[in-house]
Amino acid sequence: MKDNTILRIATKTMIPFIIVFGLYVIFHGDLSPGGGFQGGVIIASAFILYGLVWGGDEMRRILPRWLSDTLVAVGVLMYAGTGMFCLLSGYRFLDYSAISPRNNPGGDVWGMNIVEYGVGFTVSMVMITIYNEISEGTVPEPGEKT
Amino acid sequence: MDFAGHYNFWIAILLMMIGLYPVMARTNLVKRIIGLSLFQTGIFLLYISMGKIYGGTAPVHNDGVPLLPDGSRNPGLITNSIPTALILTGIVVSVSTLAVALAIIVCIKRAYGTIEMDDIEKAENGDPQ
Amino acid sequence: MLDFFLINIILLAMVTATAIAAAHVRNLLAATMLMSIYSFLMAMVWTNMDSMDVAFTEAAVGAGISTILILGALLHVGTEEKPTKGIHWPALLVVVATAALLLYGTLDMPRFGQKDTPAQLNPVSISYIKQDCPRVADWNGHHEGEVVYGKGDYYHGHAPNFVTPVIVSYRGFDTMFETTVIFIAGMSMILFLRRRRKPA
User: Fold this and answer.
1) A134 and B88: CB-CB below 8 Å?
2) What's the CATH code, domain B3-125?
3) How far apart are CA B83 and CA C21, in angstroms?
4) SS3 assignment, position C171
5) Residue A138 sits at the chain B interface (C-beta within 8 Å)
6) Predicted pLDDT of residue C141
7) Domain coordinates of chain B in residue numbers?
8) Where exactly are the structural domains of chain C?
9) Chain B contact present for A9, CB below 8 A
């Protein structure tokens, strides 16, 4: 599909805007409808669009399997890690007032945002992984090029 | 039998039953999964219908006052946000279940060569194990 | 209220027609495309009911990812279904019995769209909305003399979007385990489908 001029130029133009919009939706999760899940799926769709037009091998060249596998776990760690940080500071699990003890409701801002970023990481990388595995589920031998 | 008061719930139940029939009656595994997905979306319609208020606005406020659709800023009625939050989790879990189910179906195809239930049962029963 | 009712009925009629078509058609590729249309129409139904987050998620996840997923699976398994031999009577019986029971159950439910139902008046919803935005009137239209947040006071722990604090702070455990469920879905795709290429 990468020989088709219209597809190539249109996707090259659209992909940055899709990624920026996805980041906007994640960052403004508590100001407007949106949040981690929706923004994560939008970012994943930008990568999947690249993979559809240029081929799965090209997409795995820019986002290798080890990176997407690691970021899937990093997202869940960010979420549970915030909870553990609150627990180890002497408050309850996921009680965000541990993040800024002096300004009592202010810790909610930091807590909600960090947690949404974690969710965004996990959701986007899992969607990319699902697309990778279901469209061609093979792993090359160690001697082969990816 | 109050039509105007309950029609949304009845349409939700109709959608659920349209989805439930392929799960039990069809033999193709992918058709069954599609029916399950229809069923789940019908359940979500049932829930979200409970949170709706006529004349309400979306659950987003601005400067402490909800913005009504005509641009005025009187405090008013807000559609309840708690069913929305519960169904958000439900939608994401339903797509995760769809992903795992399809992975298992692809593995079944690789093992048996077919995804029709009666052919799989014949292969299972006729096989002298 | 009449414009809401009209849009709702038209959209739900289209949704029902698409659902019947998706369940009936034999070519699985056509069923997948009908599921995508179904998800998109449901996103519009949610928007009509003022549930923005659900509409956003359904459009992104249902009409986007779920379609790609089923198409990718159809690549491996083939797209035609075996023809069925008429109606499956036990399944139809079960479906009719379940529908009758559920319809009997909804006769007791409060009317759709009224503001004095238990879903709106329970103390959890009211205290939640009051905590997030104290100037919202309670459901009978009375204003109470409570603390009023000023213009710059967004971030004293209260976010303008009512739904995000519910899922992240009030129901934070649910969202954490939901993220774990997505993680498990990703892991199971890797475990089931990733394999070494057979030597040529």
Assistant:
1) no
2) 1.10.287.3510
3) 29
4) coil
5) no
6) 42
7) 3-125
8) 1-81
9) no
Show pLDDT as tens, one digit a residue, over chain A (146 residues): 778 889 999 999 999 999 999 999 999 988 888 889 999 999 999 999 999 999 888 998 999 999 999 999 999 999 999 999 999 988 888 888 888 877 666 677 788 889 999 999 999 999 999 999 888 754 444 555 44
d(CA A93, CA B7) in angstroms, rounded, equals 43
- Three-class DSSP labels, B77-114: CECCHHHHHHHHHHHHHHHHHHHHHHHHHHHHHHHHCC
For the whole model, what pTM was predicted? 0.88
Q: CB of A52 within 8 A of CB of A1?
A: yes
Indicate the domain borders of chain A: 5-135
**Architecture of the structural domain at C1-81:** Up-down Bundle (1.20)
DSSP for B14-63, please give it: HHHHHHHHHHHH--BHHHHHHHHHHHHHHHHHHHHHTT-BTT-B-SBEET
Q: In this structure, are residues B18 and C16 in contact, taking their beta carbons and an 8 Å threshold?
A: yes
Which of A30, A41, A130 is the best substitution to test chain B (most B C-beta atoms within 10 A)? A130
Asked if C116 and C101 count as a contact pair (C-beta separation under 8 A), the reply is: no
Residues in chain B, total: 129
